[in-house]
Amino acid sequence: MAAAARASRRKFSPASLARELAQLLPQYPKVALCVAFSGGADSTALLAALAGLEEPHLKVRAVHVDHQLHPHSRRWSAHCRRMAARLGVPLTVRRVAVAQQPGSSPEAAARAARYGALAAALAPGEVLLSAHHQDDQLETVLLQLLRGAGIAGVAAMPPLAPFAAGQLARPLLGIAGRELRAWVEQAHLPWVEDPSNAREDIDRNYLRRRVLPLLADRWPAAPATIARGARHAAEAQRLLDELACEDCGRAQAGAALMVPVLRRLTGERRKNALRWFIARAGLRAPPARRLEEICGAMLSAAPDTHPFVAWDGVRIQRSAGLLRIVPASAGPASRAQEAAPIFEWYWPQQRRLALQDGAGALLLRPDPRGPIDLEALGPHLTVRTRRGGERLRTAAGGVRRSLKGLLQEARVPAEERAHLPLIYRGDTLVAVADLFLDASVRAGATTRRRGRLLHLPAGKQGRYLHPAPGSMW
User: Fold this and answer.
1) Contacts of residue 224, Cβ cutoff 8 Å, sequence gap at least 6
2) Contacts of 87 (CB under 8 A, 6+ apart)
């Protein structure tokens, strides 16, 4: 613990920054550096220390991104211009319009806009420097753990990574935030303070203002030791990437992966390989639920089907024994399915769920004679349409049957099949409209709370007159 405590008290200076840059960048000082300059204390310390280095071959400039989200943002831009001029560093100001995507936080949208602007500003071969420090790394690791992240998430921010046309370097990850602020105060350099940093409804701010002071009182070396844990996680992730590269190499068929080879892998290696395959294409990794669909139902689907899984504009499709990444807009039918919404349904508060595109509505209500065990069902459900390869067990102790076969046996018209709402509890398909019910949620003799699910299609009053084999009626 003593060594960690000493590491957490590392002093900041232009000389220590130069040593860190020399370790990170083999070409240093013959390198072009671009500082992401917010005008805050941390980036002010980084830019001022760089400006103080007497390296004739070093090229330094700065970019400030104005999100235009705060009424004083233009004042902050003006401050950055004055500070850059005082330090003798060229500065570019980029204004962005932050477009928030459904399901994302304003902070995430602003971060995406900022990095997009920085990527566009970076010249080929240039290195973008950010002022993320040891406390930022601690916050990132804890937030990732609270979100249930895997090894890659716990590895947090790497000190050096490819970025746009160049690289992104974080040379201050070994320095505590208080050391940077002390250095700026000693140098009598002004900085701007974003008032949103005081908002405790933002997770990172709450962690920084409420949780971390308590953590530091009990474990003063926590930032340094957790940062070391993040480095260990990063090493483990590199090993996982090497294994995934080998597995995907054996399964590779051009730009696709061979399904039979993937199916021979263990479940863990299969997930690892597919994460790597998707990330190598420069695409966002799928949520855990989507990854389970790809590794499970999608790979085990019948050979004559063409199932796909889509998320955030990414689409993985299986065809002719191959798994490939295809444009999300491939084909008219897939466009309709890709656009089909996914509904999160907390039914205890919303008994009736309205669907879209003429799909009617779902109604889940308590019923003492109903076929559903409401306690087994749980309150949180997800509703979406078919993608192919779905299976469910309609009888206790029976085999899991394909939804395609069940629908054919029930003689459901083909034009209705694609629009049937599928109800999931977590990753488990538990109901298909009001046609089929999974055995895991079917009421039994000991069931205390029963319910009934009704699908009310638009413009129709009832459903099929004859119960389908294995149906919930």
Assistant:
1) 4, 5, 7, 8, 134
2) 47, 48, 51
User: Residue 29 — very low, low, confident or very high, per pLDDT cuts 50/70/90?
Assistant: very high
Joined together, the tokens standing for residue 461 give 């009053």
SS3 455: strand
The residue to which tokens 């656009």 are assigned: 339
CA-to-CA distance for 141 and 138, rounded, in angstroms?
5
Peptide bond into 29 cis (omega under 30): yes
Burial 373-404 (b: 16+ CB within 10 A, else e): bbebbeeebbbebbbbbbbbbbeeeeeebbbb
Q: What is the mean pLDDT of residues 180-205?
A: 88
Q: Which residues pair with 62 in a beta bridge?
A: 35, 91
* CATH number of 2-232, picked from 1.10.1520.10, 3.30.720.210, 3.40.50.620, 3.20.19.10: 3.40.50.620
| Model confidence pTM above 0.90 | no
For 310, residues 6+ apart whose C-beta sits below 8 A from its C-beta are 316, 328, 337, 338, 387
Cβ count within 10 A of residue 471: 18
Query: Which residues, 6+ apart, have CB-to-CB distance to 421 below 8 Å?
Result: 355, 359, 362, 383, 384, 385, 432, 433, 455
Q: Do residues 66 and 96 make contact, with C-beta atoms less than 8 angstroms apart?
A: yes
Count, residues in the chain: 473
Q: Which residue has tokens 């000082």?
A: 29
Given a cut of 50, whether residue 176 has pLDDT beyond it is: yes
Q: Per DSSP, which regions of 51-115 are E strands? A: 59-66, 91-95
Q: Are the CB atoms for 77 and 64 separated by under 8 Å?
A: yes
HSE (side-chain half, CA atoms, 13 Å) at 74: 1
Give whole-number Cα distances, 105 to 110, 112, 158, 197, in Å. 9, 11, 23, 15
Taking 90 as the threshold, does the pLDDT of residue 461 lie above it? no
How many other C-beta atoms lie within 10 A of the C-beta of residue 219?
A: 14
Domain ranges of the chain: 2-232, 254-333, 343-456
- Domain 254-333: assigned CATH number: 1.20.59.20
The DSSP annotation for 283-329 comes to -PPPPHHHHHHIIIIIHHS-TT---EEEETTEEEEEETTEEEE--TT
Cα three-residue angle 53-79-32, rounded to 5 degrees? 35
- Please identify which residue in the block is written with the tokens 């340094």: 224
Structure tokens at 415: 């034009």
Cα 288 off chain centre by:
10
